[in-house]
Amino acid sequence: MAEASTPRLCALIAISSPSLNGSSRPHLQSRRRPAVIESYEFGRIVIKGKRYTADVIIYPDHVEDNWWREEGHSLSPVDLWAIVQTEPEVLVVGTGRSGLMRVLPETEEYLRKQGIRLIAERTTEAVRIYNQLYQSTKVVAALHLTC
Question: Which residue, of 62, 96, 143, 145, is most buried by count of CB atoms within 10 Å of its CB?
């Protein structure tokens, strides 16, 4: 009887144990966490049940709200210093509902040199992309919530 239950016990341990890299996520690919960004509309976003009404940066372990850039609708390298320090694989930038925030060419070059893939889209699309990527990729999102 003990022999029959051992494989099942090992399977349960493998499913519920943290991975070797310290992640506490289950090893089963079919189990997906709920979307971290629950909703977005002009000027408002809900992240893990909390509502924000100012631009945000979503890190793997926390949300920085009230994100400001040196030049309001231009994203420059200096605006991304803290993000780069976290060494994400991907940075998803939401350029606003209408896409008015610009990612400067020097910002694109800076991120490329840092080995960070940039995805810049209108915020509605950026939210969708982030929700797809955050489960399998070290990703940060910097989202402009208005224009």
Answer: 143
pTM: 0.77
Please, what is the end-to-end C-alpha distance for the chain in angstroms? 65
Task: Give a yes or no: residue 124 inside a domain.
Answer: yes
The one-letter code for the residue type at 48 is: K
Residue 26 has which token pair?
């289950």
In a domain, 93, yes or no: yes
How many structural domains compose the chain? 1
Produce one character per residue of 48-57: b if its CB has 16 or more CB atoms within 10 Å, e if not. eeeebeebbb
**26 in a domain, yes or no?**
no
CATH code where residue 106 lies: 3.40.1230.10
Range of the domain at 115: 32-143
